[in-house]
TrEMBL record:
Residues 59-146, 157-238, 243-331 form the Ig-like domain. It comes from Aquatica leii. GO terms for cellular component: membrane. The lineage of its organism: Eukaryota, Metazoa, Ecdysozoa, Arthropoda, Hexapoda. One of its GO terms (biological process) is anatomical structure morphogenesis. Residues 1-17 form the signal peptide. This is Uncharacterized protein. It holds the Pfam family I-set. Keywords: Disulfide bond, Immunoglobulin domain, Repeat, Signal. It comes from the Eukaryota. Residues 42-55 have a biased composition (Acidic residues).
């Protein structure tokens, strides 16, 4: 250390072009080490000023090492005061870098570093001024005094970097995700990680092992040290996975000369290649067949449909991770019926409602039902009402039905032929205690039996004695209203029909539901409206 000081001193002297004068000053004022014995007579002419004759009257540093705490943009004074005479040569260092040697400024230090007598004045302090500042006083070629102050500038956090290991923002499923966030500021900021508002971890590094596609998304690094404002940054991470293919409608009903769309949803990272096939052969664009694609939606549009267009199409997607595909049927036959509702009408008859899509006229419905699973199917032929567009509503009213458990399914016939059967719907009839003539009036605000809908749209609170609510893992809610006539039922049978049992039945009946995700949603909201009406009209 002394050696360095000395070298700097010599440099300083050379810079001033007056090495001789400097040497002379030293000879006069300071007992040089070569003298061996330090002689106070040599140092002070008037030794009377000094009460302590026996001590060596060398300059003493009176400034003690101090921790300075400053706010951003403040001005700080770092003292380097001595007693016992003015020593001409001093050096200020920031950490190990020389800032001043006497009044000469070094390095890249700007105007905010000033010297006044020996005090180092720093204005507009910021994060870069947080350092140890040492004032060194050169007593001789070998002897120095020094004082070190620590300056801590309170600064709001700043995120210097937010990085993913190897800069790889697309990670294969099963691998690890390692994120690093470097935040500066004083006091040292704490770093908190979160995703979608959910706190994940604290600390500069976030690692997640064995990632799956659920781990993709925007990760936030938030740095806070209670000095406003906190800093945050996002990084988007994708988890590579093979395509997930979904079909909007598994059966698309069409007719000659119509335009039809087959709609496929594909999610994949990296971006997938998607092709449409029919009978294993890739479909190429033609004047009647077009491909549309936006975001995750891939559409095959067939204009002016011909009979030979009917058949099974495949939406096939692949990327470097893998491939998947799903089929969709373009057909002239009616679509399999979609269950919409089951309720009691004003006469306590069970009414089951389905929707059927058909672009050519429906000529007949065939509803088959049976009591218990092992008896024979019986048949009903509900009348065909006018469609709305290509959507037909099948209302099936079961009159005078003995109490018990029922299964029911429907198919419909148009000019092309019979559709597939709908999935089986199960319901329970409480039994009839009176025989009213069937009226074709459906006042379903009055006496519902079974209502199924999606729980997302349903808040089960507020339902007490009147109805029991149970939620299944399959996300369906069954509301069993109590009816006066149920009291007449055989008790043992009642007991079997716990909500759990009902749920199981519902699960089973829903299990083979056709139709894409999207087509379920309007149904759910429709049913919700119905449910609310029922609850409050009692
Ligand atoms: C410090 O000064 C800079 C520039 O003049 C300004 O942008 C910043 O907001 C100031 N900081 C504080 C804490 O006042
Ligand atoms: C520098 O120090 C001298 C005596 O030690 C004092 O008279 C003078 O006022 C000081 N100057 C400043 C700018 O502090
Ligand atoms: C601090 O120093 C770094 C590099 O030396 C520079 O990029 C940055 O702008 C400085 N910050 C301030 C507030 O002066
Ligand atoms: C000052 O020096 C001390 C001791 O070496 C060290 O612990 C501290 O971190 C330093 N302060 C700054 C602001 O660099
Ligand atoms: C400062 O002084 C101490 C003794 O007081 C000494 O150990 C240290 O080496 C000195 N540092 C410098 C940079 O001169
Ligand atoms: C990784 O996660 C998957 C599910 O995402 C799991 O099946 C597998 O066992 C996990 N592997 C390890 C090594 O934990
Ligand atoms: C595609 O996604 C973007 C952003 O998520 C959205 O703004 C846009 O509406 C989407 N386009 C279509 C056609 O859905
Ligand atoms: C079928 O039932 C629905 C209620 O689900 C009703 O709105 C509609 O009017 C009924 N249609 C016929 C033809 O009865
Ligand atoms: C549901 O589909 C499975 C096979 O996918 C089949 O075994 C079962 O019989 C079907 N159930 C109904 C009610 O169609």
């Amino acid at each position: 250390m002394r050696l360095i000081s000395l070298v700097t001193l010599l440099f300083f002297c050379a810079a001033h072009g007056r090495p001789n004068k400097q040497d002379v000053d030293y000879d006069m004022e300071i007992a040089l080490p070569e003298d061996g014995v330090q002689n106070d007579d040599n140092y002070y002419d008037d030794s009377d000023d000094d009460d302590n004759d026996e001590d060596l009257p060398l300059p003493v540093l009176v400034s003690k090492p101090t921790n300075f705490m400053a706010q951003e943009n403040e001005t700080v004074h770092l003292p380097c005061e001595t007693e016992n005479g003015d020593t001409p040569v001093f050096i200020w260092r920031k950490n190990n870098e020389v800032v001043f040697q006497d009044t000469i400024k070094f390095g890249s230090f700007g105007n905010n570093f000033q010297i006044s007598n020996r005090t180092l004045i720093i204005s507009n302090v910021g994060v870069n001024e947080t350092a140890n500042y040492t004032c060194t006083i050169l007593l001789s070629k070998t002897e120095t005094l020094n004082v070190t102050h620590e300056l801590l500038v309170q600064t709001a956090p700043k995120i210097e970097s937010l990085q993913v290991l190897h800069d790889n923002v697309e990670i294969d499923a099963g691998k690890s995700l390692v994120l690093t966030c470097k935040a500066i500021g004083y006091p040292r900021p704490t770093v908190v990680w979160s995703k979608k508002g959910e706190r994940l971890a604290e600390g500069n590094t976030l690692s997640i092992e064995n990632v799956s596609h659920h781990d993709s998304g925007d990760y936030q690094c938030l740095a806070d040290n209670h000095i406003e404002p906190p800093a945050h940054k996002f990084i988007h991470i994708s988890i590579a996975h093979k395509p997930v293919v979904n079909i909007e409608k598994l059966t698309v009903n069409s007719d000659e000369h119509l335009d039809s769309q087959l709609i496929c949803y594909v999610k994949a990272v990296p971006k997938p290649e998607v092709v449409w096939k029919k009978d294993g052969v890739n479909i190429v664009r033609s004047d009647r067949k077009h491909f549309k694609h936006h975001n995750h939606t891939y559409i095959l549009e067939i204009q002016n449909v011909k009979i030979e267009d009917f058949g099974i199409y495949t939406c096939s997607a692949y990327n470097r991770v893998g491939s998947s595909e799903k089929n969709v049927v373009l057909t002239g036959f009616p679509s399999p019926a979609e269950h919409i509702n089951t309720f009691h009408d004003a006469d306590k008859n069970i009414v089951v409602v389905w929707n059927v899509e058909s672009n050519s006229p429906i000529v007949q419905y065939e509803v088959e039902y049976k009591k218990n699973s092992n008896s024979d199917w019986k048949m009903l032929h509900p009348e065909v009402s006018n469609p709305e567009g290509n959507l037909y509503t099948v209302n099936t009213t079961f009159t005078n039905l003995p109490g018990g458990h029922y299964e029911v399914k429907v198919r419909s016939k148009n000019t092309y032929g019979w559709s597939d059967y709908s999935p089986i719907i199960k319901f329970k009839n409480g039994g009839h205690h009176q025989h009213k003539p069937h009226k074709n009036v459906h006042n379903h605000e009055e006496t519902p039996v079974v209502i199924i809908h999606e729980p997302q749209a349903f808040d089960g609170s507020g339902i007490t004695e009147e109805g029991s609510v149970a939620q299944t893992s399959e996300q369906s809610v069954i509301l069993q209203a109590q009816f006066p006539f149920e009291a007449q039922n055989d008790n043992t049978e009642q007991k079997q029909h716990t909500p759990e049992h009902q749920q199981q039945l519902m699960k089973e009946s829903k299990g083979n539901g056709t139709g894409g995700v999207t087509s379920v949603l309007p149904t759910a909201s429709l049913l919700l409206v119905t449910t609310i009406t029922i609850l409050f009209s009692h």
